[in-house]
Design goal:
The protein has eleven helices and 15 strands. It has 344 residues and is α/β, with parallel strands linked by helices. Strand 4, helix 3 and strand 5 form a beta-alpha-beta unit. The longest helix has 18 residues. The protein binds NADP nicotinamide-adenine-dinucleotide phosphate (NAP). The site of NADP nicotinamide-adenine-dinucleotide phosphate has 25 residues, from helix 1.
Length: 344
Amino acid sequence: MTATGNNKPRIVIYGCGQYGGYMARFAVQKGWPIVAAFNRAGDKVGKDLGQVIGLKRDIGVIIQDCDTANYDALRDEADIGLVAQTNNLALNLPAYKRLMNAGLNVGCHGSESYFPYGCDPAVAAEIDALAKKNGVTFTGSGIWDMSRIWSGILLLGPCTEIKSLLHTTITDVHGQAANKQQALQVGVGMTVEQYDASGLKQSRLPISYKTIPEHVLAASGYTISKTSCSVEPVIFDKPVHSWLMEGTIAPGLVVGTRILADIETKEGVTAHAKIELRLFQPDEQEHMFWSVDGMPHTRVRVERDDSAHATAANLFNRVPQIIAAQPGIVLVSQMGPMRHTALA
Ligand SMILES: NC(=O)c1ccc[n+]([C@@H]2O[C@H](COP(=O)([O-])OP(=O)(O)OC[C@H]3O[C@@H](n4cnc5c(N)ncnc54)[C@H](OP(=O)(O)O)[C@@H]3O)[C@@H](O)[C@H]2O)c1
């Protein structure tokens, strides 16, 4: 399966933050060789990856400055680069170019990478051409893979008639945000006026989320004809404590963001998504819900704990399939369900 011949993919970590750290720890645990690690200039560069990801020991991989490193040295030494830095395809493009031009497959944890053509068609075309030129695969994965994309695809599987789809979800900011800055990216703690002035409503935030129903419909044979999406603040009428924000968020203040998306298809099937990224009241459970109005009329609800572990593990467990896939952009929906690495 890999050039090591022993089923242990040789990986490169690109972005040594929270999720790069999770994937590096999984690799150490599974005995998958970590060939190199890169990060933008700052405190992490020059340090041993093991120390930076909390292992409290050296693992012999010194984090290199991604802008000055020599990527040719990776050729024939590594199978895949795991990119975990930003959600934005265009911002991540230099990383993809460096890794793919050195002959590495790329697995990206950015949310725009699950369905690149639905987020940024021009950059997606560039990525696809680059991957094909280098004979490597580009795939985006993360927590949506199993809980949003594959759960939706599987729900539609037994249908003989489909009229519409509904996707409603709540994601706990405390489960995935690494720091206060990430909570602010969905407006936590703002007044409504601050939220309106923050630029969130004009941001790229809903772009990747609207691709969830687009991805499920496209993977199920439908052709997207029209999509609209928007964001709005979520507000509670009760106070809620946030350790991330180091205090209590009063009623009337923003506790997160709601993303709304409506999709139409040439075949007449529609989808509506209501996705909330926010703080939770104590009795709430993170979950993803799909309902199909059709025959049979069915629903699926995926609940999860350990979200941060889960999102990194989705991409990590895709690694063998990404390495084995054909060159170009290959969506997780084109790979079949992922397989666990519990026995690896
Ligand atoms: N796929 C999904 O479903 C999903 C789920 C959750 C999160 N995410 C996304 O996953 C990404 C990583 O999240 P995280 O929590 O790991 O973030 P993080 O802890 O901030 O880590 C990002 C790492 O990448 C580095 N970095 C940031 N921008 C960079 C750039 N332009 N070039 C090179 N290195 C760069 C950072 O460097 P510094 O040392 O300077 O900080 C940091 O080490 C985020 O975009 C997040 O929104 C995706």
